[in-house]
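## Example record

The block below lists the input lines for one assembly entry, exactly as stored, with component labels intact.
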Amino acid sequence: MSDERKVAKKGYFHCHMPTRVIFGPGRLSEIGDVCREFGKKVLLFSDPFLKKVGLTERVIGYLKKEGLGVTTYDTIKSNPLCTSVDEAAGILKEEKCDFVIALGGGSTIDTAKAAVVVASNGGKSWDYVWGSDHEPVSVTDVSYSIITIPTTSGTGSEVTPWIVISNPALKGQKAAFGDYRLVAKVSVVDPELMVSMPPALTASTGIDVLSHTLEAYVNVNATPLANMLALDAIKLAAENLPTAFGNGNNLEARAKMAWADVLAGWTISHAGTGLPHAMGMAAGGLYDIPHGVSIAPCLAKWMEFSLASSLNKFASVAEAMDNDVKNMPLRKKAEKSSELVKQLLKDVALDVTFSDLRVTENDIDYLVEVVYTRFGGDVESCPRKPTREEVAELYRQCL
Ligand SMILES: [Fe+2]
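Predicted structure tokens for the full assembly:
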């Protein structure tokens, strides 16, 4: 299946939002009923924390109540490994499951989606990644329906076709791939599940939401639909992330961030991500940094770097984040956008540098190489396409 984001010819675009989103506090209890149409036996993906707090068991209860057989794969850690995906794919086939449920954050959802690819098509998960030293294997078959239950408000993976995995044999390097048939059939988005997220996780996933919308909104593949969704998501994140960070029990702020995440997921499904994701994922792979944290150091600097290429859009970003800038002259308003992002990063204690995350000057050549080999698509889609020297300089400025 072709990557339709590459159709960047003016006036041509695609639109694909097939996920049935079941949204609202308490709606997790509907999961058993929702799943009956997908088969008799499910592989439930989860993680050790959710198992410990009893959420995995609660979901198993809802599924069994509807007569479904359940096998679990619940050892997933953040920055999921390709080896873990391959192990899960083996279980999916051996246990003869009919479909999968991913209960968790982006790592769990990406593991489940990638395991479906391997169980459906064979081989190893790393065979399918883009920008590797081998020609990526194409996804020809998707034999299992995917249901998602996000427990964080970040990554958007619950509604996107994208997957990011890490390879322990390559210094933890991350790589992405995707296919439009991997988009979840149903996503149960229950904001009550996000209440237990600690502040640091709330911040890193929330900044991921913001970066998805910013990078997609200004990039060359932005579509009319992505533009609409992005501005709403930016406004929701700016208004609600500090509250969700400061008071995790505020269900209204949690619900608004959960919805912003869905919108941001749809935005990157149509327009993709940009340079901050490429730079962050290169660094995050090297030092096992949480995804949203790895993007934080370069987000505002990249906005400053890109400003002149997209003045109108950066002005709209500023207006979405703070209505008080409305009457400013265009350029001043556009300049405000990066200042507002810097302030938001401060508000959620993510005003970090790459040095804070252990990156050093000596790493820069390696990171630039990873940016271009693994995430070339993110570089190509930037409104101001950087040279290798400019990417190195951006890393340097963010140390
Ligand atoms: Fe992301």
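The mean pLDDT is 95. The CA atoms of residues 193 and 322 lie 29 Å apart.
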